[in-house]
Amino acid sequence: MKIKNGYILRKVGDVNIVVALGEESANFSAMITLNDTGAFLWRELEKGSDEAGLLAAIMRDFEDVDPEEAKKDIAEFIGKVKDAGLFEQ
Amino acid sequence: MPLYKIAGLYVEMYPEFDRTKLQAEKYLTDDDRKPDISIPRYDDLIEFLSKKDPEIGVRYEKNDISEYILFGSFFNQKLIRKDGFFLHASCVVYDNRAYCFSANCGTGKSTHTAQWLKLFGDEAYILNDDKPAIRLIDGVFYACGTPFSGKYDISRNEMIPLGGICFISRAAENSIEKISDTQAIGSIMPQTMYRYLKYDTMDILLSFLDKLVRAYPIYRLHCNISTDAARLSYETMSNRKINTEEHK
């Protein structure tokens, strides 16, 4: 579960936005926006975390998080990244 | 060395074909300055770009329109590094403020700004009808005329403080609203030349857009073709009322 090379995540206004770079931008017509949890998870993925790693990171860095809620957030995030085709095949 | 002053930047370039050459003519300057941006001669530019993308020489035969597109896209990449970017918009000036109306081709950007000209008469004019450059200079955002102004070359070589940015959709009834940052970014990005940028350049562009959306509310106007639509967009974006006796 690795994110493809050639993407950049930045905050613009109150939005976390992921945009394709260079060659990749020819195949990726839009951009995706992430909520703050999504942006946190994206950075964890960039570091090479897997699903278990994402859950551990959320439980470590956020206070008062219910593990079931966290799992739901992670599933939603992964679905979004997958739908956009941003995982390496 | 042919030197141009475009959007406040000194640009060295050697256009060979009419479109770029003629549209850039009014930007020529006699100032004795070092260029901020040097656009390579056409053959050198093709060779330079072909190193990154071997197809480029095939896609862009040496002709008028290719030169215009490649010069524009090279200029855009350098512009981003000078606190600026191209916004695909029709930009109208009234009361020394520039208002940019952006949308996909065929939506009616120029049709809407034409309603401003109808409403305000000689007091309003088009700064650029296709791709004004937006720049941030000493804390002030400006809209600037550029030679990359579309096929009808409606453009002035001026820099005017930015009044606002608005996206247009057609509708039977006129209405306008301030849009969320998510909608603003989703609307702005497709109307910039953001494809094929490298990491550093994209990083600079996104931080520029961050400053822009923090400084200006971004609007969406649903409009028909009428001076009422122009009145609504002007009054909302400028936060002023029009004297209805003077402008009917």
Short description:
The complex is a heterodimer of chains A (89) and B (248). Chain A has helices at residues 24-27, 36-46, 51-61, 67-83, and strands at residues 7-12, 15-20, 32-34.
Describe the structure.
- The complex is a heterodimer of chains A (89) and B (248).
- Chain A is an alpha+beta fold and 89 residues long.
- Helix content of chain A is 48%, strand content 17%.
- Chain A contains 4 helices and 3 strands.
- In chain A, strands 1-2-3 form a 3-stranded antiparallel β-sheet.
- In chain A, helix 2 packs across helix 3 and helix 3 crosses helix 4.
- Chain A is globular.
- Chain B is of the alpha+beta class and 248 residues long.
- In chain B, 35% of the residues lie in helices and 25% in strands.
- In chain B, strands 4, 5, 6, 7, 8, 9, 10, 11 and 12 form a 9-stranded mixed β-sheet that branches.
- In chain B, a hairpin with a 2-residue loop joins strand 8 and strand 9.
- The chains are: A alpha+beta (89), B alpha+beta (248).
- At the A-B interface, strand 1 and strand 2 of A face helix 6 and helix 7 of B.
Count all strands of chain B and give the number: 12
Strand count, sense and barrel status of the largest sheet of chain B are: 9 strands, mixed
- Structural category of chain B is alpha+beta
What is the arithmetic mean of pLDDT of chain A? 88
